[in-house]
Description:
Layout: E1 18-19, E2 22-23, E3 32-37, H1 54-58, E4 66-67, E5 76-82, H2 85-92, E6 100-107, H3 115-120, E7 122-124, E8 127-129, E9 133-140, E10 143-150, H4 157-164, E11 169-177, E12 180-181, E13 190-192, H5 195-204
Parallel strand pairs: 5-11
Antiparallel strand pairs: 1-2, 3-5, 3-13, 4-5, 6-10, 6-11, 7-8, 9-10, 11-12
Bound molecules: uracil.
Uracil binds next to helix 4.
Amino acid sequence: MVTRDLATLADPDVDIVALRGTPLPHAESKRYVLLHKPSGYVTTVSDPRGRPTVADLVRKIGARLYPVGRLDWDVEGVLLMTNDGDLTHQLLHPRYGLPRVYEAEVRGSVKPGELPRWRRGVTLEDGPATPSAVELVRPVGATTLVRLTFTEGRKHEVKRYCEALGHPVTSLRRVAFGPITLGTLPVGKSRPLTPHEVHALRAAVASAPSSLAPPARFPL
Ligand code: URA
């Protein structure tokens, strides 16, 4: 098809776009990867202090992938990496409240009777924080394993939350981000998301209001 209409839409994943017969460079295809982030890696693509980054762990994939949100340096677990900036923006937008599930090992013994207090929420220095779910998993020596779900991605939120309840975190792992779970992926390893998982992520943000909808495919 030849067009002079600037409003014509093209899908860079499907269409070949040519100018007077010469194909334009192809837009990079979209990649979606689940990384089981280990502790000791910063969630950036490069670090001025030379520390290991999550990008180091997915470099062999050969595409420039960016983390969807952040995990602290010492936190492990589910980290999505992608070059799909529009989807990243939506997944992180507070409007969608994508659930992030964490397993926190916390100092001391948390008794079932304390759970109502854990579920009620606390006020942190940047405002109230209330998990959408809290479960006691099991005691682990002098610590307790607690599973908490938050629907926002505030800085150090889980650590600050547990600290405020008098049980500082001794180790933290994110086991799910929206519909994506760690499964049996070993720590430090990555794998492409399945088409079903990508679809589930898109479905999680499908009710996008127009101001958040991905921009229309680029006009020619
Ligand atoms: N909460 C934290 O305290 N740290 C993280 O990395 C993520 C959530």
